[in-house]
Structure formats: structure tokens, C-alpha cells
Write a structure and sequence with these properties.
The protein has 3 helices and 6 strands. With about 110 residues, the protein is α+β, with helices and mostly antiparallel strands.
Length: about 110
């Protein structure tokens, strides 16, 4: 009985660890990974829908201090204050599949 519980526990720990390693943000609980709250500088929140992202890298080319591609070639936010808000919105607009969403204090900025 003890061996079975231990085995199940180890399998769960490995699965959770593997799942966490593939997530760009530990706060992510789904395929849509929002930044946590509004950023202190730009006062924006950026979401990347990982299910939609095709890894074209257009966002990274447009705002390399804001976005990067992870090990799965999916975009992730590294610093929502890494560029002025208008450049972040332009980078989101360059996404060919509209996988990036930008919100401000007063609501949606893009799309």
C-alpha cells in the first residue's frame, strides 16, 4: 500500500514539475497566460494565447524587450514595461494570428 501511494505521489510531482517547466509564467493556469495585474510603468496587462500562437516571432522582432519565444516557440511576455505602450500595441498588431491581447486601466487597447 505504501509503495503504491509513494509511486502515485512521485508521478504527480513529476507531472506537476514538467507542466510548470513548460509554462512561461508560474501564475498560468490555462493556455491563456496573462501578466499578473497591470504593469507598474505602462499600466498595461498583456496576454498571449498560447493555443493561438504559431511562434512567428513578429512580436519579438517588434518589441524584443517585451516578448521572447520560449522553448516551445511560443511567445511569452518578459517585461510589459520593456517598451512604450504604443510599441507594445504595434507588436501585438504584428501578430499574424492575433494571439496577443493588451489591456489598460480603462479596458482593451488591442485588439
Amino acid at each position: 500500500m505504501w509503495d503504491m501511494r509513494r509511486r502515485v505521489s512521485l508521478l504527480l510531482v513529476r507531472k506537476v514539475s514538467r507542466d510548470r517547466a513548460s509554462m512561461p509564467n508560474p501564475a498560468c493556469l490555462s493556455v491563456v497566460c496573462p501578466a499578473v495585474g497591470l504593469s507598474p510603468g505602462n499600466r498595461i496587462e498583456i496576454e498571449v494565447d498560447r493555443a493561438l500562437c504559431i511562434g512567428s516571432g513578429d512580436c519579438v522582432d517588434s518589441a524584443p524587450a517585451v516578448f521572447e519565444l520560449d522553448a516551445e516557440d511560443k511567445a511569452r511576455v518578459i517585461d510589459p514595461d520593456g517598451a512604450p505602450t504604443d510599441e507594445v500595441i504595434e507588436a501585438a498588431g504584428n501578430c499574424p494570428v492575433t494571439a496577443i491581447f493588451v489591456r489598460g486601466e480603462d479596458g482593451d487597447l488591442y485588439p
